[in-house]
Design brief:
The chain is an alpha/beta fold and 486 residues long. The chain has three domains: 3-64, no CATH class; 88-344, Aspartate Aminotransferase, domain 2, CATH 3.40.640; 351-476, Alpha-Beta Complex (Aspartate Aminotransferase, domain 1), CATH 3.90.1150.10. Helices cover 37% and strands 11% of the residues. It has helices spanning 9-12, 32-35, 53-65, 87-93, 96-99, 111-128, 140-157, 175-182, 200-206, 229-238, 259-262, 331-367, 388-392, 397-406, 434-453, 455-460, 472-477; strands spanning 132-134, 165-169, 186-190, 211-216, 242-247, 266-269, 289-291, 303-307, 310-314, 383-386, 413-414, 423-426. A seven-stranded mixed sheet has the order 1-7-6-5-4-2-3, sandwiched between helices. α4 runs antiparallel to α12. Bound molecules: pyridoxal-5'-phosphate. Pyridoxal-5'-phosphate is lined by residues 79, 139-141, 173, 175, 217, 246, 248-249, 270, 285, 287. Pyridoxal-5'-phosphate binds next to α7. Its EC number is 1.4.4.2. Residues 353-453 form the Glycine dehydrogenase C-terminal domain.
Length: 486
């Protein structure tokens, strides 16, 4: 697509052109000057583009096609689970009986919505092996913070005031140490061993009577299953700590194993990842949290509960950490997740994991011919390659990621996890056809060939996008966020 085909809307503006027709204003002149403070009143006319409705539509539709989305192409962004978002979810979320209700309506008038929200809580409890689930938190990171605050209250309630450490692996998602810090803990790093798993000896050395919790993702951020999880749980529990499960990516274990069975006490889920909530534009998300019976009193209030045949919000929860979100979570995203779970059923969810793991292993084995594979055991839903071989030839992982754009692919997650040099973290998801996986593999092979024969092509990419190489540091430090036409 050429830049010229989509001139910016300010450049299309012609004085006096309008994109709307409204009836004459028949409201008596308002005394605006006395309604607002002087500093709020505009002194000059707003400089808005003057365009026709059609030009406006072309502007926004043009912008939308510049974006790469799951509906436009393969999106193997590791740890983000960019799977297909079934359109049936959208239909259900738009049913007026759900979409037209108001959060301040009487409970008795919204029993249908409370019914499915409660059923979703129960389903997620079953899927994770937890006792009780809240739908309040709006994102994974908020779920982490909620869970850690509960662990903190639990220890404090036991008079255990010195438990200030939360242990986090060096491969963990960045939100883990951040949430631990925001929740008032000190984040302590446990090392990863040469097989990409938590170093048990290092863990034993770190765990003591100051340990509040171990935060873990399993399979971990390298896409590898922590085989010693039961032993790790025992080490932490014996020292009086709790186990926190970062369940943002549940795609590899659905129906096969559960955090509760592994010994975890608190779990958060990202319904916008595993359970097909659309994401990628920054939200809205949903990060429900599940806990064991022991931690149930600390859940945020209100908690949606069932009494007899009706559903109600329970505010009478003296040990609760309090409210973490207005109303009761992102209802629309939760409804999409509920639709997905009910559509798939238990067997369907199991198959999700089977295909997610099969697809990842297929790609990993084939790509290991052209790229360094630091951990060689089978992976789960994702895997991490290193661009070491290519770096020796002068091409960085960033260059290869940019080159992928020219072939219509969203690049994988790069330079994460930080314990792998020149990391490329690839998560194909279960919803992709084999031909799509093959197409991506062949493109990666082609890029690896280019690196050998003509590295400059890769170093200068991309060529096909509206903007080429951006100065990413300056873009982050001094962002230009609005169009300046003068
Ligand atoms: C995405 C992700 C998170 C954070 O979730 P948000 O909804 O973006 O806050 C946490 N942990 C892992 C492993 C993730 O992949």
């Amino acid at each position: 697509m050429s830049k010229e085909a989509y001139p910016l809307i300010f450049e299309r503006s012609k004085t006096g052109r309008t994109g709307f027709s409204l009836p004459e204003n028949d409201v008596a002149d308002m005394d605006v000057a006395n309604m607002f403070e002087d500093s709020y009143i505009r002194k000059e006319k707003a400089e808005l583009p003057e365009v026709s409705e059609l030009q406006l539509i072309r502007h926004y539709t043009g912008l939308s096609t510049r974006n790469h989305g799951v509906d436009t192409g393969f999106y193997p962004l590791g740890s983000c689970t960019m799977k297909y978002n079934p359109k049936l979810n959208e239909d259900v979320a738009r049913l007026p009986g759900f979409s037209h209700i108001h959060p301040y309506q009487e409970e008795s008038t919204v029993q249908g919505t409370l019914y499915w929200m409660y059923d979703l809580q129960e389903s997620l409890a079953e899927i994770t092996g937890m006792n009780t689930v809240t739908l309040q938190p709006a994102a994974g990171a908020q779920g982490e913070w909620t869970g850690l605050m509960m662990i903190r209250s639990f220890h404090e309630n036991n008079g255990d005031m010195d438990r200030t450490k939360v242990i986090v692996p060096d491969s963990a998602h960045g939100t883990n140490p951040a949430s631990a810090t925001v929740a008032g803990f000190e984040a302590v790093t446990v090392k990863t061993n040469e097989r990409g798993l938590v170093d048990i000896e290092d863990l034993k050395r770190l765990v003591d009577d100051r340990t509040a919790a171990l935060m873990l993702t399993n399979p971990n951020t390298l896409g590898l299953f922590e085989e010693d999880i039961v032993e790790m749980a025992a080490i932490v529990h014996e020292a009086g700590g709790k186990l926190y499960y970062d369940g943002a990516n549940l795609n590899a274990i659905l129906g096969y194993t559960r955090p509760g069975d592994m010994g975890f006490d608190v779990v958060h889920l990202n319904l916008h990842k595993t359970f097909t909530g659309p994401h990628g534009g920054g939200g809205p998300g949903s990060g429900p949290v599940g806990v064991t019976a022991e931690l149930e009193p600390y859940l945020p209030k209100p908690l949606l509960t069932k009494s007899g045949e009706s559903y109600t919000f329970d505010y009478d929860r003296p040990r609760s950490i309090g409210r973490v979100k207005p109303y009761y979570g992102n209802v629309g995203i939760n409804l999409r997740a509920y639709t997905y779970i009910r559509t798939m059923g238990a067997e369907g969810l199991k198959r999700v994991s089977e295909y997610a793991v099969l697809n990842a292993n297929y790609m990993m084995r084939r790509l290991s011919d052209s790229f360094e594979l630091p951990f060689t055991q089978h992976c789960k839903h994702e895997f991490v390659l290193s661009g070491k071989i290519q770096k020796k030839l002068g091409v960085r992982t960033l260059d290869m990621a940019k080159r992928l754009l020219d072939f219509g692919y969203h690049p994988p997650t790069i330079y994460f996890p930080t314990n792998v040099e020149e990391a490329m973290m690839i998560e194909p998801t279960e919803t992709e056809a084999k031909e799509t996986l093959d197409g991506f593999i062949e493109t990666m092979e082609k890029i690896a060939e280019e690196v050998k024969k003509d590295p400059e092509i890769v170093q200068e990419a991309p060529y096909s996008t509206v903007v080429g190489r951006l100065d990413e540091t300056t873009a982050a430090r001094k962002p230009v966020l609005k169009y300046a036409h003068k």
